[in-house]
Amino acid sequence: MQIIDGKSLAQEIRQQIAREVEDLKKSRDITPGLAVILVGDDPASHAYVKMKAKACKEAGIYSITHEMPESISQGEIEETITMMNRNPNIDGILVQLPLPGHLDATRLLELIDPRKDVDGFHPFNVGRLVAGLEGFVPCTPLGVMKMLERYGINPKGKNACVVGASNIVGKPMAALLLNAFATVEVCHIYTQNLAEHTRRADILVVGVGKPNLITEEMVKEGAVVVDIGINRLEDGSLVGDVDYEAVAPKCSYITPVPGGVGPMTIAMLLQNTLTAAKARP
Ligand code: GUN
To answer: What CATH number belongs to 139-262?
Structure first.
């Protein structure tokens, strides 16, 4: 069993990005810029946005966070997005999710210029991903593909099972694995007999948000297990969706939590922002 070390891979990628940002500044006088919109005071969202801003700074990427109160109107956020769309120094725009219930997230995501959609949530980029065309890909599933690639795991011809069908993680993950020629199953809350599906998987990717959802008997011997879950337990510790201690000995490869997929998400956000900056006219 080998542990897929997302933390060190992400660090390596971030150093490479920092070098490329430096080159872009020298050769074209371009400093990549990221605008983040953060609404309300969800502590997890604040923590993520803070990590994103710090990562930008370390890579030499300019970032600005528009912090807005819970009571903000749809129109005011739309104005901010429109302004960022027009701002030539901003290459990437990100609306931190989830948003308070009175806001129409879909409409906001659709307002982002698809060329600045570094989260890959705009239907334009979702469509391009499904069609196998170039475009911005959501950071978490993109990070998973990078990890597989780096560890020499080729999805071609493998049975892949994705547990969780969210727009942010499960659906784009399934599209990427399919584009890489895996046979893909997607399971979700209405799936009956989950274990029957997961046990068939050569590559099992789980992003649900439920500690210990995946137990030892649900995993095939020699499987690659990728745990996207991040759950904080009452004692303050972080765990994924996989019963790591019991499952790990059965795997050929497994990602830990923390130190697995999480750090890769941020590295991919920087990567997408750099890509957007390089595409400036
Ligand atoms: N909320 C949870 N994950 C993400 C993400 O990758 N991007 C944004 N914008 N919000 C999130």
So the answer is: 3.40.50.720
